[in-house]
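Re: weekly structure request thread

Next one in the queue (184 aa):
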Amino acid sequence: MIKLYGGARSRASIVQWYLEELQAPYEFELLDMKVGAHLQPDFLAINPFGKVPAIADDGFQLWESGAILLYLAEKYDQLEILQEKAIASQWVLFANSTLGNGLFIAETREKEAPRLLNGLQKILENQHYITGENFTVSDVAVATILGYAIMMLQMSYADYPAIDAYMKRISDRPAYKKAILGIS
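Done, posted below.
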């Protein structure tokens, strides 16, 4: 069984959301980061940088949310061909670096956010999810960043109706409600 390590209100919720979507068995180990549990030798043996999330899966250890998402997609046969793997990697990397930085770095947000959101708007005007009509790991990566922007920056997607509709679809998903919103 996969053991997911995370802190309260941490990026571990991204991984938890995907595990819930996959209906994969897992154990969540909540680290008390306020008292430095993530800096103790046992956890540093899993992630030497003392950051969450991290997983342990039958002796295999991995950290960094994007890497974990891609690992889970492979493990649970969500990516069958090379092109699907490449597209998933593209979107996970986009979410964690380009989109995250574009929305959360205050100095560049005014310039970057509209450009990025306009691109997503165009994609989502023609399909229900990031890569087409089916929900994938790409949606977990992108929608988490978009959702965090709503929660942390009070960002609104009212000027981007396709993104707004997408986020409504996402927020109706039981796994998203449980892992990201904390609603059981």
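The chain has two domains: 2-75, 82-173. The mean pLDDT is 96.
Next request, please.
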